[in-house]
């Protein structure tokens, strides 16, 4: 069995090693290796008083020119439909304010229609809307279109969680059986004028 061949360090790796270990005392009987030839090793700039130099800290938040970069606002969390609302939808006593049927649409078309529908419905003051995706069928039974409907059934919940729709959507759940069941979603919209409208 042969021993492992040791890899030699490159110039930048040696510089980095000396930068990291410049304040470390060597063990007794050992000498500190000589620094690499060339320019002096770079030193980290001292952080101003009252700031930290940690990544993501206040000092790191400043971009070139002294301007502070602002992190994107946190997306509001999704929540399940309220029990009373869910019961009313299941019994048919609570109305659905608008319906979007995505049957037969391709993903790009369906995504664009969904964004426009959610924005328009919320602008109109809708509380609950119904988005029909279809349950998906075998491609052989519907000439291939069922495969796309199956994709939409999986993709619509994902789209509703994305940053472009999340601020307008409070939550969503599978629709009541008489409104499509697993092939549709009840979507609860946020009221206009909330914190998400002021971001």
Write the layout of secondary structure elements.
Blueprint: H1 11-21, H2 83-91, E1 98-101, H3 107-123, E2 128-132, H4 139-142, H5 145-160, E3 169-174, E4 184-189
Parallel strand pairs: 1-2
Antiparallel strand pairs: 2-4, 3-4
What does this protein structure show overall?
With about 200 residues, this protein is α+β, with helices and mostly antiparallel strands. The protein has two domains: about 10-60, no CATH class; about 85-199, Ribosomal Protein S8, Chain: A, domain 1. About 30% of the residues lie in helices and about 10% in strands. The chain is built from five helices and four strands. It has helices at about 10-20, 85-90, 105-125, 140, 145-160, and strands spanning about 100, 130, 170-175, 185-190. Strands 1-2-4-3 form a four-stranded mixed β-sheet, with helices on one face. Strand 1 (about 100), helix 3 and strand 2 (about 130) form a beta-alpha-beta unit. Helix 3 (about 105-125) packs across helix 5. The longest helix has 17 residues, at about 105-125. The chain is elongated. Residues about 40-45 and about 50-55 have low confidence and may be disordered.
Q: Tell how many strands the DSSP assignment holds.
A: 4
Distance between the termini: 65 Å
List segments where confidence is low: pLDDT < 50 over at least 5 consecutive residues. Answer: 39-45, 50-57
Structural class call reads: alpha+beta
Give me the strand/helix succession.
HHEHEHHEE
> Helix fraction?
25-40%
Q: Which whole number gives the mean pLDDT?
A: 75
- Backbone CA Rg: 29 Å
Percentage of β-strand residues: 5-15%
Looking at the structure, the CATH topology of the largest domain is Ribosomal Protein S8, Chain: A, domain 1
What spatial form do the alpha-carbon principal axes imply?
elongated
Number of domains: 2
Per CATH, the class of the largest domain reads: Alpha Beta
Q: Which second-level CATH architecture of the largest domain applies?
A: 2-Layer Sandwich
Q: What's the tally of helices?
A: 5
Biggest beta sheet attributes = 4 strands, mixed
Strand order of the largest sheet: 1-2-4-3
């Amino acid at each position: 069995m042969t021993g492992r061949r040791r890899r030699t360090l490159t110039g930048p790796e040696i510089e980095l090693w000396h930068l990291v270990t410049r304040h470390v005392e060597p063990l007794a009987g050992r000498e500190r290796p000589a620094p690499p030839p060339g320019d002096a090793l770079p030193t980290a700039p001292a952080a101003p008083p009252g700031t930290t130099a940690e990544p993501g800290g206040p000092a790191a938040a400043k971009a070139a020119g002294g301007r502070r970069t602002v992190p994107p606002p946190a997306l509001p969390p999704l929540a399940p439909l309220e029990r009373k609302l869910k019961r009313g939808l299941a019994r048919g006593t609570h109305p659905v304010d608008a319906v979007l049927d995505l049957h037969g649409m391709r993903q790009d078309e369906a995504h664009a229609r969904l964004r426009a529908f959610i924005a328009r419905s919320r602008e109109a003051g809708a509380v609950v809307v119904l988005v029909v995706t279809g349950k998906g069928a075998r491609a052989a039974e519907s000439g291939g279109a069922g495969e796309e409907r199956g994709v939409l059934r999986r993709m619509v919940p994902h789209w509703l969680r994305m940053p472009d729709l999340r601020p307008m959507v409070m939550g969503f759940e599978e629709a009541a059986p008489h409104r499509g069941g697993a092939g549709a979603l009840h979507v609860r919209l946020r009221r206009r004028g909330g914190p998400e409208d002021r971001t």
